[in-house]
Amino acid sequence: MSELLDAGFDTSQCLIGGRWIGASGGRTLPVEDPSTGHEIGRIARGGKAEIEAAVDAAQTARNGAWGQMPAAERGRLLAKIGRAVEENIEWLAKLEAHDVGKPLTQARADARALARYLEFYGGAADKMHGETIPYLGDYTVFTLREPHGVTGHIIPWNYPMQILGRSVGAALTMGNAAVLKPAEEASLTALAFARIAMECGLPAGALNVVPGLGEEAGAALCAHPGVNHISFTGSLETGRKIQQAAAQNVIPVTLELGGKSPQIVFGDADLDRALPFLVNAGIQNAGQTCSASSRILVEASRHDEVVRLMSERYRALTVGAAIEDQSVGPLISERQKNIVQGFLAEADEDGLAPVAEGQMPKSAPMGGHYVRPTLYGDVDPGHALARDEIFGPVQVIIPFRDEEEAIAIANGTDYGLVAGVWTRDGGRQMRMARAIRSGQVFVNNYGAGGGVELPFGGVGKSGHGREKGFEALYGFSALKTVAVWHGR
Ligand code: NAI
Ligand code: MG
């Protein structure tokens, strides 16, 4: 096929113990470009055998050069890899644009975030010290932060580089050896990153990458008794399976499972400042974002105004191929497009009409998985559009009467990942920040700056455990308490 992507390397290999090898039997999976629906390459279809070899290699690395590397040197190495990522932003962004349909500007931002994770965590590696604890007479007690050992990382297709950065970056910082199973829809930047890391001198086996299907390579990684910690970002259903597998081996697991995150706009909000956040947090990455703000709660007095202003912005949004860098690219797959269109059809049957839609230029390639950004006004908080994670460029505006009702609606889903509050009233800012059930609350902003430094994770069905910031480093290590009696 003439449209094969020149990635600059053989994409059909796994990285195991520092060696690039094909999956047993030469098994591969297609790489689809969601902007066109065309196959543009192949990746390895790793399975149980590759996972076993990767876990072995990680254990060997823990007992060898990687395990013995002093923290300062580990940090320096991570920072060096971060700089190399920075130098390769264009290459990585192009791979991502073709692999997952992410518009180039957004793909570049992801690559930059990956570099920033490595810079941030690299700088932290030699600062993760323990404590001394006052204890009985003739005792000295101190704590050590030790790596878990081998960490398993199962990541999704929506923000491959960012999630790799926060998860693998933090695990390596603490001296763990990682086995990464990227999503079958999005393995190219994980493989490219691994090449960069190896060129920078990462010891063999510290990072192993085994692409493959969730039910094959993913399930094998979760079930492997040699894995000491699992980090997972993805769907609720798969998260449940992963926690069950982790229970068999009694290992800790971090689950980040998405949300239905609200932004709450009070009557006194600065709408000029709020508007770009209200819209971008819903349509960024075509709404395929765990922390997407898919619900906009607006005090009734300003509901119609917010509908009008958001509608203007929606009508200016354009949809198109990732490489053309429009506001919104395609969805990841035909399956994801069907899920999102199912929600829109259900709304239609229930008599809900969109208040505004984005534009789909005729130049959008045939076969791409495009969905027009779609905005609904005056939606009942009980409707599926306002309750379920859609994972597409769809937002609903919900009116509320007062603070109490805003809190009830905001907390009225099974999820609790992120929330935004827009008000100038200082007391209300604090009351809302405390009353909302979620892992993060942004006041008069929403996710500004990317938040590498800010601990992130959910409550309720959004999952548990925290990644990003220093908190991730606690999660990727185990605390050992040493009590020394030194009496005569
Ligand atoms: P998924 O949760 O099945 O896939 C995420 C990762 O888990 C992939 O690497 C996949 O290979 C792996 N996986 C799947 N089954 C597994 C198993 N049995 N054992 C171990 N690993 C397994 O999500 P999928 O199917 O790609 O998307 C379905 C829905 O999930 C989306 O429509 C969206 O609503 C949600 N989602 C949420 C994400 C988030 O950021 N929270 C990311 C991706 C999807
Ligand atoms: Mg793909």
UniProtKB/TrEMBL annotation:
InterPro entries for the chain: Ald_DH/histidinol_DH (IPR016161), Ald_DH_C (IPR016163), Ald_DH_CS_GLU (IPR029510), Ald_DH_N (IPR016162), Aldehyde_DH_dom (IPR015590)
Keyword Heme part of the UniProt annotation: no
Catalytic machinery residues: E256
Matches recorded under PROSITE patterns: ALDEHYDE_DEHYDR_GLU
One GO MF term: oxidoreductase activity, acting on the aldehyde or oxo group of donors, NAD or NADP as acceptor
Domain Aldehyde dehydrogenase positions: 20-482
SUPFAM superfamilies: ALDH-like
Record keywords, A-Z: Oxidoreductase
Keyword flag Oxidoreductase: yes
Coiled coil ranges: none
Family listed: Belongs to the aldehyde dehydrogenase family.
Protein name, per record: Aldehyde dehydrogenase (NAD+)
Species name: Hoeflea halophila
